[in-house]
Amino acid sequence: MRVYPPWDIPESQQAKKTQAWQLIYFFEIKPAIDSAKIIQLFI
Predict the structure, then answer these.
(1) Is the pTM of the predicted complex or chain greater than 0.85?
(2) pLDDT for 5-42, tens place per residue?
(3) Cα separation, 5 vs 28, whole angstroms
Protein backbone atom coordinates (compact mmCIF):
# COMPACT_ATOMS: atom_id res chain seq x y z
CA MET A 1 0.00 0.00 0.00
CA ARG A 2 1.31 3.43 -0.90
CA VAL A 3 0.36 6.64 0.79
CA TYR A 4 0.54 9.98 -1.01
CA PRO A 5 0.40 12.95 1.39
CA PRO A 6 -0.63 16.41 0.14
CA TRP A 7 2.98 17.59 -0.12
CA ASP A 8 3.96 14.71 -2.41
CA ILE A 9 3.83 15.27 -6.18
CA PRO A 10 3.28 11.88 -7.83
CA GLU A 11 4.25 11.41 -11.46
CA SER A 12 2.21 8.42 -12.65
CA GLN A 13 -1.49 8.72 -13.42
CA GLN A 14 -2.33 5.86 -11.06
CA ALA A 15 -0.47 7.55 -8.20
CA LYS A 16 -2.31 10.82 -8.91
CA LYS A 17 -5.67 9.04 -8.76
CA THR A 18 -4.71 7.31 -5.54
CA GLN A 19 -3.59 10.58 -3.99
CA ALA A 20 -6.85 12.26 -5.01
CA TRP A 21 -9.01 9.91 -2.93
CA GLN A 22 -6.49 9.69 -0.07
CA LEU A 23 -6.40 13.47 0.46
CA ILE A 24 -9.80 13.55 2.18
CA TYR A 25 -8.36 11.27 4.91
CA PHE A 26 -5.25 13.32 5.67
CA PHE A 27 -5.30 15.54 8.72
CA GLU A 28 -2.52 18.05 9.18
CA ILE A 29 -1.52 18.38 12.82
CA LYS A 30 -1.00 22.03 13.68
CA PRO A 31 -0.89 23.95 16.95
CA ALA A 32 -4.62 24.70 16.49
CA ILE A 33 -6.38 21.38 15.88
CA ASP A 34 -9.74 21.33 14.11
CA SER A 35 -11.52 18.80 16.29
CA ALA A 36 -14.65 18.90 14.12
CA LYS A 37 -12.64 17.64 11.15
CA ILE A 38 -11.11 14.84 13.23
CA ILE A 39 -14.54 13.71 14.34
CA GLN A 40 -15.78 13.85 10.74
CA LEU A 41 -13.00 11.48 9.66
CA PHE A 42 -14.34 8.78 12.00
CA ILE A 43 -18.03 9.08 11.13
Answers:
(1) no
(2) 999 999 999 999 999 999 988 877 777 777 888 788 88
(3) 10
